[in-house]
Amino acid sequence: MRKAIAELVNAIRGELAELSLSGPRVWQANIAALAVGLALVLALMLRVNNPWWAGISAFLCVQASHPQSWQRGGMRMVGTLVGAALSFVLAPWVVYDPLATVLLLFAAGTLAILGSLLSPHGQAWLLGGITAMMVTLGSLDDPTLALSIAFYRAVEIVLGTATALLVTRLLAPAEGEAVAPPPGWHSLFGPNWHVLSHAMRTGMAVAAVPLVWRQLELPNLSQMAISIGAVMAVPTLTGISERDQSAIAQRMLQRIAGCILGGCFGAMVLFFPISQSFVPWLLLLMAGTWLSMQIQSGRYGIAGVGSQAGVALILTLVQDTGPADSLLPAMNRIAGMIGAIGLLVLINLLVGPPLGIQSTAEEKQS
C-alpha cells in the first residue's frame, strides 16, 4: 500500500510539473472549463435543484475529440433518461418494502457495471444504473419525491451533457482514436464469469448502502452509491484476480486523492471573499476544472485523480443558488464518497478476493 501511495504521489507531481499552455492536452482542458462554466450558468438560470450535476456531467463528457465526446455523451443521456423513467415507475412500489428496495438496488448496481464492461453501449448502462440508484435512494424517506428527483436528475445531467457536446462540436478535433470493442454479453457463466462476479459484488455494495446509512447515520447516501459505481467501473477486467484487484485498489486511491485535491482547492477558493461574487467564483471554478482536466488527460495514468478532483471541486464550490457560502454541504458529499470506499473495502473483506479466470502464478506457468 505504501508503495502504491508513493507511486501515486510521484505521478501527481509529474503531472503538475508538466502543465503547459499549448498542445492537445491544454485544448481539451480549455474545452472542459468552458463547457463546465456554460453548463453551470444555464443550470442556475433554469433554477434546477442541484446545478452541480450539470457541471459534473459537462466535465465528465468532454473527451479528446468530438466523436469520442458524442459517443460518451449520447449514451449517457440515453441511459439517464431510461434509468430515470424506470426508477420513477418502480420506486413508489418498492421503497415501502425493504427487501424489494435491496433487490432493486442490487439489480441496478449489477447491471450498471455488467453493461459498462460488456456492452457497446456501456455508458448508457452505467448512467442508467446510477440514475436508478439516485432516484430510489432519494425517495426512501418520501416516495412522493420520486417524480421530482427523476425529473430534475434527468434535466441536470442531460443539460450538462448537451452543453459539453455543443462545445466539443464547435471546438474539439473532428477525429479521434477508435475505442476497443467490448467483449459482448456471452459466456457469463463461462469465460466471462469473473465479470459477472465483479458486477454482483458491486450490486451487493450498493444494496448495503441504505442499511449502513440507517445504522450509522452517514451523510449523503446517494453519493455513496454513485461512488461505488465509479470505483467499480474499471475500463476492462483481465480475468487475472491479482491484476483486477490491483486495478480496483488503484481506482480507490485515485478517487481519494482526487477528493483531497479538488476539495482543498475549493476550500482555498472559499477563503477568498471575492469567491462570493459570481464572475470571480465562476472563473476560479473554471480554472480548477481546467487543471483537473490536464491531470485527467496526462501521460502518467492517473486519469481517475483528475476526474475526481474536478467532481470534488464542483461539489465544493456549487450550491443550490450559485456560489457556495459554506463547506458543510461539500464535506457531507465528500464524506459520502469516502464512506463508499470504506463500504467497498468491507464487502471485499467479507466476500473475499475477486474471482478470476486464473491467478498471476498460473499466467506465468502458461
UniProtKB/TrEMBL annotation:
One of its GO terms (cellular component) is plasma membrane. The chain crosses the membrane at residues 26-46, 75-93, 99-117, 252-272, 278-293, 300-318, 330-351. The keyword Membrane applies. It holds the Pfam family FUSC. InterPro entries: PHBA_efflux_AaeB/fusaric-R. The keyword Transmembrane applies. GO terms for molecular function: transmembrane transporter activity. Keywords: Membrane, Transmembrane, Transmembrane helix. It comes from the Bacteria. This is Putative membrane protein YccC. It comes from Rhizobium paranaense. The lineage of its organism: Bacteria, Pseudomonadati, Pseudomonadota, Alphaproteobacteria, Hyphomicrobiales.
